[in-house]
Amino acid sequence: MSTNVLDDAPLTGFHKRLAVYSAGGPFLDGYVLSIIGVAMTQITPQLRLSASWEGLIGASALIGIFLGAFVGGYLTDKFGRQLLYTIDLVAIIVCSVAQFWADDVWLLFLMRLLIGMAVGADYPIATSLLAEFAPRRYRGPLLGGLVVMWFLGAAVAYVVGEVLLHNGSEDAWRWMLASAALPATIIVLLRLGTPESPRWLVSKGRLEEAQAVLHKVYGPDARLSDLPREEQENTDLRKVMRSGYGGRLLFISAFWTCSIVPLFAVYAFGPRILGALNLEGGLANIGAAAITVLFLVGCVAGMLAINRLGRRALIIHSFAWAGLALLALGVFPDAPVAVIMTLFAAYAVLIGGTQILQWVYPNELFPTEIRGSAVGVASSLSRIGAAVGTYLVPVALTGWGIGGTMLAAAGITLFGAAISVLWAPETRGLALHEAAMIQSKGTKAATVHTGP
């Protein structure tokens, strides 16, 4: 096993702070995508939204994430991780505040689209920076911890939304949507002064700057010679895809899509879905918040298990058991409330393994030169399905009923299990550059499975 100063460093206060600062983007993502579900209870009657517009507003941030992740990935590979690390959050602050004065459905759609673009841009920026500093032993848990923060943001959003809804005026939804500016401002201030990735600096030939970062983070004895040498010479994403990474991108995009389509639908319309399952009014909102906490529990469990079980076993079991819970919801939509909540709770906990791997796999399976672009492309492609799925939830609930809607969610989740059995690789214990290598004679690299 090769050693180098980044992959084999001890876990320090710097790594912990970087993980917290990087988690700010996922926290805001969970917050802005979830609070719209509570706000919709006021927005729909006040702006007289049709079912189509209701779905479009719910999906608007996801559409923005599709655009932002793709562009953000390209920019972070071209201009660096640190430069864009705070700029994207400033955009979230401005657009969140602007939502307060949105009296037109088109303006609300535009603001949420722009927020989604900023959130999407943060995916490849923050995760690439954390992955390139994280020691191999802690890389999985640290990257998985970003998803834990996504669910924490979602849980906080439901609590804030419920408090504002029952203690505010008919314009409480405006305060809900504008409230994202507060955590975004705090995160921007915390991120100031974060160093650039030395791996990226070396890939661009900026050796003196890379050496300075190594000295700052790892001490005066750290040298450029301690850094791993990545064998991938192609820096153009299209060329690299033709050299063998296309299969990895297909797997990541497919499993990511299957993981988030049902989940985002639950978050955008959680109270309405639970209402259709016979949980009415405030009980539906409380139930949605409780399920969010259980999503958080599932991600924490996945984060703790990722090194013990390995990436491949974790993703297969997570998809399979969560899919069975949704299947039961679809088959028995009229079950007693206790049974409904138990099945939703099981789904929330069991799907956690696939959620944390959304950040681990993409950052491990591609070289430094294209890591940001690959994460951005995979995130963008996954959001197409998520946006379509979220848009169709109100239509599905009306046309198929809650049973049919849950069966569709189960089918998507179980399909994720199938493709994971076929393609999921194992990267546990590998240095970052080793995990990113395409397997060749005499090299140790992640192997993408081509069969059971």
Automatic annotation (TrEMBL):
Pfam families: Sugar_tr
Subcellular location: Cell membrane
UniProt keyword annotation of Glycoprotein present: no
Classification via InterPro entries: MFS_dom (IPR020846), MFS_sugar_transport-like (IPR005828), MFS_trans_sf (IPR036259), Sugar_transporter_CS (IPR005829)
Keywords, comma-separated and alphabetical: Membrane, Transmembrane, Transmembrane helix, Transport
Bilayer disposition of the protein: Multi-pass membrane protein
Segments forming domain Major facilitator superfamily (MFS) profile: 18-428
Domain of life from the UniProt record: Bacteria
Membrane-spanning residues: 20-43, 55-76, 83-102, 108-130, 142-160, 172-190, 249-270, 282-306, 313-332, 338-361, 373-393, 399-424
Coiled coil stretches, renumbered: none
Name of this chain's protein: MFS transporter
UniProt lineage: Bacteria, Bacillati, Actinomycetota, Actinomycetes, Pseudonocardiales
